[in-house]
Amino acid sequence: MYRIYGNNSGGVTFVDLNITVLEPAPEFIPLQSAYVVERGQLLSNIVVGNIGGNISAWTITPQLPDGLVFADGMISGTPSVNMSSIVFTIRAENTGGFDEINFTLQVLEPAPLIDSTSASIVGIRNNSIEPLVLVNSGGMASEWSILPQLPSGLTFENGTIYGTPLVNSTSELFTVTALNEGGSSQFTFYIEVFEPEPQFTLSTSNFLLFRGVAFNAIEVSSSGGNIASFSIRPPLPSGMFFDENRGMIQGVPLIVSPEIQYTITAENSGGTYQQLLTIQVLNQGPVFTLPFETISLTEKVEMAKFAPFLSSDVVVDTWSLEFVQGEQLPEGLVFDSTTGSIFGRPAEVSPLMNITLNATNDGGFYSLSFTLKVLSDYDGDTIPDELDEDDDNDGYSDKEEELKNSDPFDSGSNPIEGFEVIIPNTEISLGAWDIIGMMTGIPLIVFLSFSLLTRNKRTARFLEQLESAKSRKDIAAVAEAYESAIKWRLIGPHQGMRLERIRAEADDKLEETERQFKYKVEEKYKQLEPKKEESKAQFFDKVDQTPLVEQSKASAESEESDDEQIAESEESEKPTGEDSEESKESEVKAPSIDAEPSLIDENGRQWYHDDEKRYWWRDESQHEWSLLDSKDSE
Known about the structure:
The protein is α+β, with helices and mostly antiparallel strands. It has 6 domains: about 1-110, Sandwich (Immunoglobulin-like), CATH 2.60.40.10; about 115-195, Immunoglobulins (Immunoglobulin-like); about 200-280, Sandwich (Immunoglobulin-like); about 295-375, Immunoglobulins (Immunoglobulin-like, Sandwich); about 420-575, no CATH class; about 580-634, no CATH class. The strands form 13 sheets. It has a 4-stranded mixed β-sheet, with no helix packed on it. A hairpin with a 2-residue loop joins strand 25 and strand 26. The longest helix has about 35 residues, at about 495-530. It is rod-shaped and about 245 Å long. The termini are far apart. Residues about 555-590 and about 630-634 have low confidence and may be disordered.
């Protein structure tokens, strides 16, 4: 209380007065109207600004959520609970009055924060996967989602992926989203589903095949996942094929192959699987034929090569001969173990022996037997004694000498008394009557001229008749004529021997020609058989064999081109005539030398029938088939 005095001369007076001084009322600075904070997140202090008087008291209504504190106009702290948006009022008072301010406060759940220790799922079809669990270190998610859709068989639930994939799937990116009122969180990962690892089995792991022979397909039996592709290493032998889709081996091996280990590999998305197998390709066991089953040779005479016949696809590694009781080839004969052939010139007589020819290759062996003998040739004229009508070459037949008690193997033993003198280096011979004639006074020059003109011309005539003979019957008639001439001394013995040798060669050629002719006529007869009205003998008689004979004779001309030289040297030489044949036949397109013959005769000659033509081939020295007669079919 205050007293106010007043005085003057009149006196003194006072008045009591109470004076109260008030604080100015509070005046708030405006706040933002709304505040949002996450649970567990430190709140940025909310401070109420006052530009009024000092505030004596602060209040806030309603009560703040747990974790937040209001003091002296400031809200601070970390909310520990969620709270929906609420209007709060802060009031400040003093003696001068009060002020209030309103705002909203919301405490949200923190946004989810999801993660996983694995960034991918790798599964195998029809096998359960290891579950993928997402860990949320943020606020509780109120909603989960995943994109794109999981492969069939897999399930997504509350942040966990589990199940058994039923289909394959390439690597694909998936996104999981966790959502709440505080926000969202995403996690990405890959899923890949493989086919189960392939597996397969083989019926056997070792295969033995033969060149040129088809085999049952080698197949695999799958027992694992579906196989995308197969492969094999190393490459298969030529002619064999591998199916990369089915893992199958098939074909016909064309070459020989040693035992090789192969690896078959099966692949799919789940992995690879391998199996080993061995394949060996051998030649087929050798098969061959022989030109004939008996070889009859003459001592000191070169034999025609005896060679087995093989088809072009047969391979022989080794040839061998097998003898009975330690026998061996006669001296002078050679066996070629690479071709199985026998050739050479036998040096001496050998009795009949049984021989087995063996062919061996990696696929087996094959054998054929034959007999061989070497006949004697006393006079060395290349004609074996058992076929030679004059073994001692003295101009008298063996029969004639035997009948007259003369030794057929002694040229000095003659069946009649007499002699013959051959003038050296000439073809002139003088018999007993010749000598008598000379002694009786006939001039030598007259006799020599008579001998030369008559005997040589007569011999030439016989040679011409032999060369022009069309059949073996013609040859027999010529032989009978010159044998009579020898008997009456119209030709000399050595001229008779020459004629006999040429007769034998011509007879052999015509014999073979007639046999081939008969073969071809029989073929024609068979073709005409459905409409035949005559016997086979009548049919044979109707067919003209002159072209065949003329062809054979033309072929023989070149082989006899050395006859005059043989006559002069009185030596037996075997003409070849191959040059003329080759030049004549080179214009003909012959079949392959490997063509299989239709027939093989006892002399080693092979005959081939090609449609309307016939070809022949003697031995390996002749390197192509020769046309026998291109007009035979006409």
